[in-house]
Model the fold of this input.
Amino acid sequence: MFVLASYKNNLTMFRKCLFYLFVFLIYNVGQSQNQYEYAGAIVLNDSSSTTYSYMVSLSEVSGAVSGYSITNIGTEYETKTTVLGNYNKQKKELTIGEGEIIYTKTPIHFDEESCFVNFSIKSFAFGKTKNAKGKFKGLSSDFKKCAEGEIFLNSIEKVEARISKVVKKIYKSKRIADSVKQKINPLKMLDSLRMNILRKNQTLSVFSKSEKVDLIIYDGGKVDGDKITISVNGKVLVNQYNANNTKKIISIDLVGAKTSIVIKANNEGLIAPNTIVVELDDRRNHIKALSNLKSGESTKIDILKKK
Done:
C-alpha cells in the first residue's frame, strides 16, 4: 500500500528510500527459510514515473499464497500490509493482491489516497526466478482504480550477492578512509536499522482485531541504563523503567476504538540515544520496533481496533 503523490518530483526522498531498502535487505536476508522474499520497486505510469521501494515476503502451499508487503521502507510513509494470492504452477503465473494494513507510519488523517497494490507476474517459479517484472494495478479501499504501472522484483539472494560485491569493492578501495568503511559496515548498523525505528513525535499506527495485545520491552543490545516511562491512554503503566536483557511483558486490553501507547525516554543511558526494543503481539501479528530517542523525547503507538 502506498500514498499517492507522497514522492512526486522528490529525488532526495527517492534516494533516501533506496538507501533504507538497501539497509533493510542486508539484515533480513535469510531470516526465514520457509518464505520467499523479493525486493525492488513499483513505478507509476505518470508524468514523473514516481517510484516506491517495495518488498514482498511470500509462502506458498498447494497454490495458495500468503505473506506481507512493505512499501517505502525506512521512510515516514513506511507501511506493512498483508498479501494474498495464488500461484498456477502449470502456467507459472503468480497473482498477488494486498489486503489489510498491519501498520503504517503515514498519518491516518491524510488527504492523499491510499492505494493497494495488485499484480500478476508470468514465467515465475518459486525458488528459481531471480528477476521478475509485471504490470500492477492500484485499487482504493472501495476497489476503484487509483494507479497503474510496473513492478520490478529481485530475489533476496540476488540482491544479497550484489550488496556483497559492492561492499567488498569498498573495503578493498584505498581511496576510502577506514573511518568511512566502518560507517557503511553492515555489522555496525545491525540492530538500529534492522527494525522499525520509533522516532520522536512520530505515530506508528497498528491495526488489530484482538481484544488484547502484549507489549514486550527490553534492551536488545548492550545494557547501558536506558530508562523509559510508558503511558496507555494517558495513564502511566511503567515509570522510569530501567531496561535490561530480560523481556518485560505488559498485557494491554484493547477496549476502545483506539489505544494510545506513549513511550518517553527518561535518559539516554551510557550510550546515546535511548534505544529500547519494543514488540507488539496480538496473536495475529507480531511487530518489532526500536526506540531512537533523546532524553525527554517521546514516540507514540496507536492501536486501532478493527471489527
About this structure: The first helix runs from residue 11 to 28. Confidence is low (pLDDT under 50) at residues 5-18, 25-33, 185-194. The chain has two domains: 2-158, 195-305.
